[in-house]
Amino acid sequence: MPEASFAAIVASLHARTGKTLLARVLAEYFILSGRRPMLFDTDTTEYRLSASFPNETLAVDPSHVPDQMTLFDTLALTTPEARVVDVTHQSFRKFFKVMQDSHFAPEARARQVEPVIFYIADRNPDAYEEGRVLRERFDDCAMVLVENAFVGRVKELTRRSAGYQAFEAHDLRMVLPPLDLAIADAIDDPAVSLSDIMSRPLSRSADAHPAGLTFEQQTQVRGWLVQVFREIHRVTRAVENRAAALSSDEPPA
Known about the structure:
This protein is of the alpha/beta class.
């Protein structure tokens, strides 16, 4: 049986949660692991993921039926490439409605594609409540709860909410560690290549670096990326192990 490919769906209820940055890091992770991904950008206004990977990204609008068909048909293809979808917050509800109505998860899995929702929660109660609803709607799909340190501490009101408490025992989760604000702003520029930061020699001259980063800042970014890559590796291995266990439990055809 061929090895399953990942379809990483990156989503958040609200804007400014680090969603596109996570999509970029996932793309770089798959590239470095030899599973060069197909990328999909649902932001047809700013095209932020497309700007980072202009030759590898397909821009789609989930509110348009032809784009819906292109997106989900391509996501479910039996191919060795990983795939990453950056779901803009404006398209959040439409995307997941189409995903549910099209029975994407079981169809993808039947074609050796393992869908994984990377859901970024923020400080607000509605973000966790929406995550809880999403997990129930797609109980046949792995869901990774992503907590981004950059958005700040979770509100006490949020901690007391039913949505937050529903995730207390959730095992698939990862953390985006904190990063200095100036550095975060620099790498948020879609023209800045994260793989370039990882691969090019460290320089003492900020002028020699495309992002204008100092030697110390370059070192911090590399350390941050290594931490996030480790987190992604850990959760994707957990998803692989879970999928393998579920597959072994299925009766033979």
